[in-house]
Amino acid sequence: xxxxxxxxxxxxxxxxGVAVVMGGVLAFVNHLTExxxxxxxxxxxxxxxxxxxxxxxxxxxxxxxxxxxxxxxKEMVFTVYQIQDAQGKELGAAVESTTMGFGGNLKVLVxxxxxxxxxxxxLLEQTETPGLGAKADKWFQKGEKGDIIGKDPSxxxxxxxxxxxxxxxxxxxxxxxAFLLAVNNAYNAYKTTPADAETGxxxxxxx
Length: 207
Fold this sequence. Notes:
Blueprint: H1 2-53, E1 58-69, E2 75-85, E3 90-100, E4 105-112, E5 118-125, H2 136-139, H3 173-191, E6 198-200, E7 203-205
Antiparallel strand pairs: 1-2, 1-6, 1-7, 2-3, 3-4, 4-5
């Protein structure tokens, strides 16, 4: 009996030791990858801002955090990047907006000109069904079936199935509605950015 207890104790000690070592290794690896991952995200955002604003030589003049409540009273947070060209001319803003799609969060970056018309968009995060909802990255671009470029969301954009003017992605109405809601919310955040919003430092978006 004592021999059995000893064996169990040894097994527990070995397993505990392995768990501690593995935990340390994972923590070390995580520490090593934190920097590169953060740099990759920053580059993706910088490239995204250029893409949605349709300008390469630009700078983020100001970064605002805007908080608004949705129709159910849930607080939403938007990041508004006020954009200028190299000469300091106001170009509008790029806005991060997140809604719930069919498969999870749908995070969109939308570019607006000073009048509020859509210059471009890109998806920063999406978990939609491949071949269906995932088509949102192309479907609403200029010249495509659901083209929203140049549109003014002061009248909210909706899919044609709901009486709107935008063709939904085939077999992905839920994703299309979520995407357009993200765009409409981004527009509202841009047009109602308060003067006392939380503001970050000016930064140059590198070429």
